[in-house]
Structure formats: structure tokens, C-alpha cells
Design brief:
Layout: H1 2-34, H2 36-70, H3 73-79, H4 86-100, E1 104-109, E2 114-117, H5 132-140, E3 142-149, E4 152-163, E5 166-176, H6 179-189, E6 192-197, E7 200-205, H7 208-211, H8 217-229, E8 236-238, E9 245-251, E10 256-263, H9 264-298, H10 302-315, H11 330-386, H12 388-411, H13 415-446, E11 454-457, H14 458-475, E12 479-483, E13 490-493, H15 495-511, E14 517-527, E15 530-539, H16 546-549, H17 561-567, H18 573-583, E16 587-593, E17 597-605, H19 611-619
């Protein structure tokens, strides 16, 4: 009895599904035959909207390209040439055309005169300022138009080239309204595309059937103009008296019309393709429905219940659960697969637990190694901090004896020997500076830096430091400036460490700046309720990239490897300076623009005396 019911259910379900599929297919066939003309109109309307989006996207892309070209340093450098000749302008235009990959690229001057046409090195110096979009670009910075230029219509975008606050020229790029652009629109809209200007066809993209027809593109353009003039609608109109062709027109600028054409043959072919696809989908759906009904009717629920219970037990953590595999049907295979899966998962869990134990042991070893490395680093820092006298004394002796030998050589007029001894002194002082930096950073890391707090005149210290750094500034032909609106007066702190911080910042600025300005400023300000001194050093040097700023305050680090190779240095000055500023209740911040320079601002507390001493001083 069960098998008979299953057979009837299977046969009934299959008949219903096939009948529904055939009825749906017949209904859709009837609707397609009745509404072919309406479908043509809908297709044309959709094609017109799609073509508008294509044009808008093209304009946006072109405008973005013109904007990007106008910002290129190479183009701006060309416009800043005092006497820009035609050859240089043409070479620049050709290079920019290769970058933009557009058929039209023009360079104009600030009055709208043509400087160069990338497609013609002998293009006449025409006055294009009368063009509306050129004048709009000169006035507002950007402009767009469908522009007729030298016998072709271009979808053009322009952008003003500015240097400083002034407009020095205009760059124009564009694509032609030709067969290639028409083919791009046709690929998206699916309709035949024509560009018509003044009754003349300037670009087209048509289907293979249309290309094989007897009517040429020029004759079709004339028929379009005649049909549109005699039709009541300016948007959609009949193209032939037999109503087998309909066209939609989109009026563009400069007398150009975009015409989209749909033929009855295309619509019927499209409908046939849709019908075949619909028939295939209907058959697939019918087969799937029949197969599903067969599977549901053929299977008993007992193996499924067993699998459900086993899954629940497995989900609660019983990794040893299994189900009877039964016969060799699909449910038997599913049961066997379930058993294999649970066995494999159980093995994987055991392996994961084993790996977890290994990783835990490795983690303990890593922690021990890390602790040992930290201890070794602290021991190194303590050793270097304690060895300051032993490291500095020999270098000081070398410098002292070398200076005495220089004086004796100069008295004996042995200038060659004096020059060699001067090199020894210079190298020894450089080595002493490196040793001092290493010892200072080691003291900072070892926590052995102390402050000598006393009152001192910051204005005098700034002037003295400027004088010390002046030779380094002169080496790179820099101007060293001290700019203060008013005197900052006396502060209470460690004058030597403040001097070292200022000297490090000024030395770096002079080293990374050539033929520029290095400016030192100081002012009082309140930070978090404390009166502080803000000492800033600004330069017009090479600047620092955003991704290099975070690492410059780390010991032995610079902005990048090329900087270290070109300018030298140990990368310790800024790390030491920031540590000193933090020790004196402040910090160091930096702002920088690549190619324009940097500004480092060091802040320190204006009075480093303890709170009790400050209270006593206020009471007095």
C-alpha cells in the first residue's frame, strides 16, 4: 500500500508541475505577441536612460582626468618656464596624452590661446577663449562641453592649471563622438547607436543585420532627420512607414544628436531568445520538482531521526557517537559519512589539544627568553652608563693633544701637517658626539638621568645656541633666524638639557635643509594647568612622509634608509630629545609636509621645582 501511495504521489506531482510549466509558457508567448510594439518603446526608453548614464559617467571620468593632469608637478613646472616655446609645450602635451590615454589633449595659456595640440605639432596658435567651456574654466576652474574642434565633435573636459594663487593655463582632454564611442554605448544599451550633426552622420555602431542592409549610414541619418521633423514627438518616433523601426533621440550640445534605433527584427530575436531561456528554466524547474517529490516519497523517516539524535549528542560533546549505516542507499551513505566525519573530528580535537600543550610550553619558553633579553638589555644600558668616563677620557685626550700639535705646526708653518691634524680633531669630535649620544640614550634606558634644576635666562640660551649652530647652517647656505614677539625671560629647569634639545633640533633642521630658512621660536603657554615653554624649530627642507613620522623618535631610527645614507647620523638625537622633554614635564611634536619642510615643537615645564618649593615661593 505504501509503495502504491508513493507512486501516485510521484505521478500526480509530475503532472501538475509539467502542466503548470506548459500553461505559463503559453501565456507568456501570447503576451509577447500582443505587446511587441510596447516592448520596443520600453527598450528604447531604457536605452535612452542608460545612454544618459554612460555620457554622465564619461564626463565625470574625463573631468577627474583633467583635474588630475592639472595637478601634476610636471605640467606646473612647464607653465612656470619664463619663455615657453612651442616644442616644449608640444612635448609636454604628448607625454600627458600618453598618461591620460585620450585622443584629444590641448594646452592653453591663461588667456585661452592654444599652446599645443598633442595630435598636431604644427597646430596654429588659435584663440579658444570664445568657447563657453574654456571661458567657464578660466573663471571657475573647470568646464565641460560637447565641442566641435577641427572637423570632429569631442566630449571634452577642461581644468585650470594653477601655480600659487593664479591661473597659468588650461588643460583640455576629450574623446571623439565617433564609431568607437557609439560601440561603447551600444554594448551597454543593446540598441543601434548613431551620432548625427547637421544632418551628417559622424559616428555609428549598428548590429550585423543593420550593417548588411542596403541603407547606408549617411542615408539613415537623413531618414532620421526627415522622420523626426515630421513626427509629433521630439523623443521617440517612427523611422519607417512600416513601423518596423523606432528611434529615440537625445539632443546634446553643439548641434549633436544621439539617436538610438530598435528594429522589429531585433525585438523578435530577443523574444525568441527569452522564450528559449524560459523554456529551459521551466524544464529544469519541472525536473527538480519531480525529483524532489520522488525523494520525499521514497524515503522513510527512521534513518533521518537516527541521524538527528546522533547530531544532537555530538553537538553536546559526545565525540564517540555513531549511527547504524543500514543499506547501500543514499541514507546509508549519509550515515556512513556521518560516522567518518565524527571519527575525523574526534582525531582532530585530540591533535588540537596536543598542539595546544606544545604551544603552551613554547609560550613559556618565549616568556623566559623575553625576560632574559630584557635583563641583558638593562645590563647593557647600565654598563654603558657607568662607562661614560672611561669612553670619553681617551677621546678628550686625543682632541686636546691634536689641538696642541696643530698650534705647534702652525707656528712652524707646517700647513700640510696642520690640515691632517685638523682632520683628526674633526673625526675625534664626531666620534665623541656619537659616544655621547650612545651614552645618553643608555642612561635614559637605564633610568640614570637626573636633572640639575636652577634658574636661567632662556633668551640668552637661545642666542648662544644660535651662535653655536651658525657654522652648520652656513655649510648648507641656510638662513638661521630667531623670531620672538617678546622676551620669554627666566625659567627654572636644567639648562644643559634644554640647550641639548634645542641644539639637536636646530642641527637636524640645518642638516636636512639646503638654501633655505631655519627659524627658532619660543613662547610661554599653559598645558594641563602648568605653565610651559614651547620651543619650535621650523625649516624649509625635505620634510617627512606621514608613514615615517611615527618611527623618527625611536632610537637608531630615521625616516627611511635613503635619508640615513644621504645625510648620515645615528638616529639618536630625537629619541634623546624626546626623553629629556618628557623628563622635564613636556614632549616633542612634529608636523611636516614632504618637499616643504617640518616644524618640531618641544615643550618643557617653565618651573621644575617640587610642589612644596613652588608653594613656598608663592607664599613669599
Amino acid at each position: 500500500m505504501l509503495r502504491t501511495v508513493q507512486g501516485r504521489l510521484f505521478a500526480g506531482t509530475g503532472a501538475v508541475v509539467l502542466g503548470f510549466a506548459l500553461l505559463s509558457f503559453a501565456s507568456i508567448e501570447l503576451m509577447m505577441r500582443r505587446h511587441t510594439d510596447a516592448a520596443m518603446l520600453r527598450e528604447l526608453d531604457a536605452a535612452r536612460l542608460a545612454s544618459g548614464r554612460v555620457l554622465a559617467l564619461r564626463r565625470e571620468v574625463l573631468q577627474g582626468g583633467a583635474r588630475a593632469l592639472a595637478q601634476t608637478p610636471y605640467l606646473k613646472a612647464t607653465y612656470t618656464i619664463d619663455e615657453l616655446d612651442a616644442a616644449t609645450a608640444f612635448a609636454t602635451a604628448v607625454q600627458l596624452k600618453d598618461v591620460s590615454e585620450t585622443p584629444l589633449l590641448l594646452l592653453l595659456d591663461a588667456q585661452g590661446l592654444l599652446l599645443a595640440d598633442a595630435a598636431d605639432p604644427k597646430a596654429p596658435r588659435a584663440d579658444l577663449s570664445a568657447q563657453t567651456f574654456v571661458q567657464q574654466t578660466l573663471d571657475r576652474g573647470e568646464g565641460q562641453a560637447l565641442w566641435f574642434y577641427r572637423g570632429r565633435s569631442y566630449l571634452a573636459s577642461a581644468c585650470a592649471v594653477t601655480v600659487g594663487d593664479g591661473v597659468v593655463g588650461v588643460v583640455v582632454i576629450g574623446i571623439a563622438a565617433d564609431d568607437a564611442f557609439a560601440a561603447e554605448i551600444r554594448q551597454i544599451t543593446g540598441a543601434d547607436v548613431l551620432f548625427v550633426r547637421g544632418g551628417r552622420l559622424i559616428g555609428q555602431a549598428r548590429s550585423a543585420a543593420a550593417d548588411a542592409s542596403e541603407r547606408s549610414g549617411t542615408a539613415l541619418a537623413a531618414a532620421l532627420e526627415s522622420a523626426r521633423a515630421g513626427h509629433g514627438s521630439r523623443d521617440v518616433f517612427l523611422l519607417s512607414s512600416s513601423a518596423e523601426e523606432r528611434a529615440a533621440a537625445v539632443d546634446l550640445e553643439d548641434g549633436v544628436t544621439l539617436v538610438l534605433v530598435r528594429t522589429l527584427t531585433d525585438m523578435l530575436r530577443l523574444q525568441e531568445e527569452q522564450k528559449r531561456g524560459l523554456l529551459l528554466v521551466s524544464l529544469i524547474c519541472a525536473l527538480l520538482a519531480i525529483a524532489a517529490s520522488r525523494m520525499m516519497a521514497a524515503r522513510l523517516c527512521r534513518p533521518i531521526v537516527a541521524l538527528t539524535r546522533a547530531s544532537e549528542m555530538f553537538g553536546h560533546g559526545d565525540l564517540t557517537v555513531s549511527v547504524p549505516e543500514g543499506g547501500g542507499d543514499e541514507l546509508g551513505a549519509l550515515s556512513a559519512g556521518f560516522n567518518r566525519m565524527t571519527g575525523r573530528i574526534a582525531r582532530l580535537v585530540a591533535e588540537v589539544r596536543s598542539h595546544a600543550d606544545v604551544l603552551e610550553a613554547q609560550q613559556r619558553q618565549l616568556q623566559q627568553a623575553h625576560s632574559a633579553a630584557e635583563s641583558a638589555n638593562r645590563a647593557k644600558s647600565a654598563f654603558l652608563a657607568n662607562m661614560s668616563h672611561e669612553l670619553r677620557t681617551p677621546l678628550t685626550a686625543i682632541i686636546g693633544y691634536s689641538e696642541m700639535l696643530i698650534e705647534e705646526a702652525e707656528e712652524r708653518e707646517e700647513l700640510a701637517d696642520a690640515a691632517d691634524l685638523e682632520k683628526i680633531v674633526t673625526s675625534a669630535r664626531h666620534l665623541l658626539s656619537l659616544v655621547n649620544d650612545v651614552l645618553d640614550i643608555s642612561k635614559v634606558e637605564a633610568g640614570k638621568v637626573s636633572l640639575e634644576v636652577e634658574p636661567f635666562n632662556l633668551d640668552a640660551l637661545l642666542s648662544e645656541t644660535i651662535g653655536l649652530v651658525q657654522p652648520l647652517a652656513a655649510k648648507n647656505r641656510n638662513r638661521l633666524l630667531l623670531v620672538q614677539d617678546k622676551a620669554v625671560g627666566t625659567i627654572v629647569g636644567d639648562s644643559q638639557k634644554v640647550r641639548q634639545v634645542i641644539n639637536n633640533l636646530l642641527s637636524n633642521a640645518c642638516k636636512f635643509t639646503r638654501d633655505g630658512d631655519v627659524t627658532l621660536r619660543a613662547r610661554r603657554q599653559v598645558v594641563d594647568g602648568w605653565e610651559c615653554m614651547a620651543i619650535s624649530v621650523s625649516d624649509t627642507g625635505i620634510g617627512i612622509a606621514d608613514d615615517g613620522i611615527d618611527g623618527i623618535f625611536e632610537p637608531f631610527s630615521q625616516a627611511d634608509n635613503s635619508t640615513a645614507r644621504r645625510y648620515g647620523g645615528t638616529g639618536l638625537g630625537l629619541a634623546i630629545s624626546r626623553s629629556y622633554c618628557e623628563l622635564m614635564g613636556g614632549t616633542i611634536t612634529v608636523t611636516s609636509v614632504v618637499g616643504r619642510g617640518s616644524t618640531f615643537t618641544a615643550t618643557v615645564r617653565a618651573d621644575l621645582r617640587p610642589a612644596s618649593a613652588l608653594a613656598a615661593a608663592s607664599a613669599a
